[in-house]
Design a protein that fits this description.
With about 140 residues, the chain is an alpha+beta fold. The protein has one domain: Nuclear Transport Factor 2, Chain: A (Roll). It is built from four helices and five strands. Strands 1-5-4-3-2 form a five-stranded mixed sheet. The longest helix has 15 residues. The radius of gyration is 15 Å and the shape is globular.
Length: about 140
């Protein structure tokens, strides 16, 4: 396991324990965060990640867990494969969606994050009437 892998693992552990400040402390001050679905981080930095991802995520999903199952590392680049398991707050539907997260760690801090996730599984959970919602991207 590389130091970069350990840092990414610490991030998942912190989030899983509800330790958002601990997770944010692992991020570089100018972190770049790219997600799929409709969450958008406007700008750079940990507080922008909270505003664009963490805050809306906790409103939209009544429960959620990120469950990493595999880490693949090459220097400061780490790919984590895993599952997003959650219950949608409005529809009450559960989701178990596969993901790939690509992390870049520089000087002991997470510099960038890119998310790839099964958006059809997410959209199916969000639906309240079995219609897959269309999300307009900016």
């Amino acid at each position: 396991m590389t130091d970069a892998t350990a840092i990414v693992e610490q991030f998942y552990i912190a989030l899983g324990q509800g330790d958002v400040p601990g997770a944010l402390n692992l991020m570089a001050d100018d972190i770049s965060w790219t997600t799929m679905w409709h969450y958008k981080v406007n700008g750079r930095g940990p507080l922008k990640v909270v505003e664009g991802v963490f805050a809306p995520l906790t409103v939209e999903w009544s429960t959620f867990k990120l469950i990493p199952t595999e880490f693949i590392g090459d220097g400061g680049t780490i790919v984590s494969l895993g599952r997003f398991v959650a219950t949608h707050a409005t529809s009450g539907r559960k989701v178990d969606a596969g993901y790939a997260h690509v992390w870049t760690v520089v000087n002991g801090k997470i510099q960038s994050f890119r998310q790839y996730i099964d958006t059809l599984a997410i959209a199916s959970a969000v639906s309240v009437n079995d219609e897959i919602p269309v999300v307009a991207l900016e």
